[in-house]
């Protein structure tokens, strides 16, 4: 089985044309480096989101980020109820697409959420149109308003990243190679956006993602945090990084792999679908797999040996869940073979919808880059090989130690990035080394409820909350929108589950 079959998928330039408006600080070239003190007198914020054009992009620049600019326009799409915007984060020849919806409640007061899907290589348009955006695709040409959208109580940004994913593109086929670089681009984007639309300055900011997003988000949030020191030094307003929110994350990929025997053959509430003989065979592979992953992926990172060990483990431990059933949801059957599109036919409709030229025109997609696919397999293979091995949980620990909160929520019917105690995401949270670790570990899981009905289990101490979402699979907001939104809204409000 190759990496692709196993992939954890959750899974232009209208502007440059004549007539685009520019809002420049006077100094767009010269000696502005990250350490140069910032002179507010040289910069004019754009200020009024309503003044953005519906048809042309406005380009936003900022002297502190000479390598980055933002193209943005108003867009009428999705439910049409709140103000919506779309555009690109431009970094030289690289262009990351974003969509932004204001809060349905109070855009001037509510928190800001950044969202990315995982994959790697999965488009965040899946999050927007199938999971938590203000509308949902209902067929190849149709959407409808979605009641349980995350912008009910927050301003929400969806970003297609890295380059090559969804509507993001590069002029000459450039590729971004690491999470860290993408993190720098995302950090720069929000500073530029908030400096221009100053009502967002200092607003509580949350970085959220799913699946492989469990590896993106800790790195991106660290980039935002580290960038803040530099902003303060330059006299700019730091981003008020308040929390990270990770859904069905693959934060520690080795731990995820080692959990597969337990979810299939242990007593964690998953259906007993794997035969006794397969379980016995797998059990013999567990210690060998553990040893090989530890030796070549954890203790030292030898890419060749590590990939070899990974393939060995995959072949010996995952065959049943990944080739015979829906690996993303123990409750949801697939149409045909257990690949993402057969398990989630809405993904095909979403792809058709997003390839409709009139839809793309509303979004401001350049016809030259209008071919939309929900997954970029080249990015998938590249990041699976290169970016799967660093310990993203160490970033989480560092964020917790600096007062950034973390919400780890997990749909409890997901096999692929499961919640399971001692092995899956619960173990990841228990093993995080931070000042609250002992208190966190000593607390038992307890039920949490929505309207008197148990909606999952949770444990929370200080800045760290772990929660399962009952009867949700890998895409918890898709499967259990009410429960997932309840977790999110209580989290934003600083309430216990
Ligand atoms: C959707 O658009 C396609 C063309 O791509 C058309 O063939 C089809 O009839 C449309 N379906 C509906 C329900 O409008
Ligand atoms: C950041 O947001 C928190 C609420 O999460 C608020 O209490 C605090 O004052 C904000 N900080 C700044 C510097 O605006
Ligand atoms: C695009 O979508 C519109 C409805 O929004 C529909 O009328 C039209 O048939 C679609 N076009 C194609 C080529 O699918
Ligand atoms: C978009 O897809 C069409 C047909 O599928 C293909 O002919 C065209 O080359 C593609 N364009 C790009 C920019 O990939």
UniProtKB/TrEMBL annotation:
<keyword id="KW-0121">Carboxypeptidase</keyword>
<dbReference type="GO" id="GO:0006508">
    <property type="term" value="P:proteolysis"/>
</dbReference>
<feature type="signal peptide">
    <location>
        <begin position="1"/>
        <end position="20"/>
    </location>
</feature>
<keyword id="KW-0325">Glycoprotein</keyword>
<keyword id="KW-0378">Hydrolase</keyword>
<dbReference type="GO" id="GO:0004185">
    <property type="term" value="F:serine-type carboxypeptidase activity"/>
</dbReference>
<dbReference type="Pfam" id="PF00450">
    <property type="entry name" value="Peptidase_S10"/>
</dbReference>
<keyword id="KW-0645">Protease</keyword>
<comment type="similarity">
    <text>Belongs to the peptidase S10 family.</text>
</comment>
<protein>
    <recommendedName>
        <fullName>carboxypeptidase C</fullName>
        <ecNumber>3.4.16.5</ecNumber>
    </recommendedName>
</protein>
<dbReference type="InterPro" id="IPR001563">
    <property type="entry name" value="Peptidase_S10"/>
</dbReference>
<dbReference type="InterPro" id="IPR029058">
    <property type="entry name" value="AB_hydrolase_fold"/>
</dbReference>
<keyword id="KW-0732">Signal</keyword>
<dbReference type="InterPro" id="IPR033124">
    <property type="entry name" value="Ser_caboxypep_his_AS"/>
</dbReference>
<dbReference type="GO" id="GO:0000324">
    <property type="term" value="C:fungal-type vacuole"/>
</dbReference>
């Amino acid at each position: 089985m190759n990496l692709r079959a196993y992939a954890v998928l959750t899974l232009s330039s209208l502007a440059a044309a004549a007539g685009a408006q520019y809002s420049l600080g006077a100094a767009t070239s010269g000696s502005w480096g990250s350490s140069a003190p910032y002179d507010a007198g040289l910069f004019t914020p754009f200020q009024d989101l309503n003044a953005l054009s519906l048809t042309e992009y406005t380009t936003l620049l900022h002297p502190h980020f000479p390598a980055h600019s933002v193209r943005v326009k108003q867009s009428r799409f999705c439910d049409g109820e709140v103000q919506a915007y779309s555009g690109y984060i431009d970094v030289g020849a690289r262009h990351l697409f974003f969509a932004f919806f204001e809060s349905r409640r109070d855009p001037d007061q509510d928190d800001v959420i950044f969202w990315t899907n995982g994959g790697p290589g999965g488009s965040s348009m899946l999050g927007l149109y199938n999971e938590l955006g203000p509308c949902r695709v209902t067929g190849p040409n149709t959407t409808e308003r979605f009641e349980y959208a995350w912008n009910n109580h927050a301003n929400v940004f969806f970003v297609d990243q890295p380059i090559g994913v969804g509507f993001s593109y590069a002029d000459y086929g450039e590729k971004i190679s690491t999470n860290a670089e993408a993190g720098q681009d995302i950090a720069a984007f929000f500073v530029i956006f908030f400096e221009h639309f100053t009502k967002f300055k200092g607003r509580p900011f949350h970085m959220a993602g799913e699946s492989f997003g469990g590896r993106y988000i800790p790195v991106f949030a660290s980039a935002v945090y580290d960038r803040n020191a530099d902003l303060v030094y330059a006299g700019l307003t730091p981003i008020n990084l308040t929390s990270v929110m990770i859904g069905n994350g693959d934060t520690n990929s080795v731990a995820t792999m080692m959990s597969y025997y337990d979810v299939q053959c242990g007593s964690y509430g998953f259906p007993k679908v794997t035969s006794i003989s397969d379980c016995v065979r797998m059990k013999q592979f567990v210690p060998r797999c553990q040893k090989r992953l530890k030796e070549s992926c954890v203790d030292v990172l030898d890419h060749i040996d590590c990939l070899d060990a990974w393939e060995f483990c995959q072949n010996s431990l995952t065959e049943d869940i990944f080739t015979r059933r829906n690996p993303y949801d123990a409750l949801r059957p697939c149409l045909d073979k257990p690949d993402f599109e057969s398990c989630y036919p809405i993904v095909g409709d979403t792809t058709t919808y997003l390839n409709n030229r009139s839809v793309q025109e509303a979004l401001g997609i350049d016809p030259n880059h209008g071919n939309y696919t929900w997954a970029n397999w080249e990015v998938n293979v590249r990041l699976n090989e290169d970016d799967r091995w660093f310990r993203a949980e160490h970033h989480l620990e560092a964020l917790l130690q600096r007062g950034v909160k973390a919400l780890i929520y997990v749909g409890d019917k997901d096999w692929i990035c499961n919640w399971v105690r001692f092995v899956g995401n619960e173990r990841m949270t228990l093993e995080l080394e931070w000042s609250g670790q002992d208190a966190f570990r000593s607390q038992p899981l307890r039920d949490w409820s929505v309207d008197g009905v148990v909606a999952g289990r949770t444990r929370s101490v200080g800045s760290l909350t772990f929660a399962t979402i009952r009867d949700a699979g890998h895409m918890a907001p898709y499967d259990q929108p009410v429960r997932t939104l309840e977790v999110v809204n209580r989290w934003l409000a600083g309430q216990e589950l």
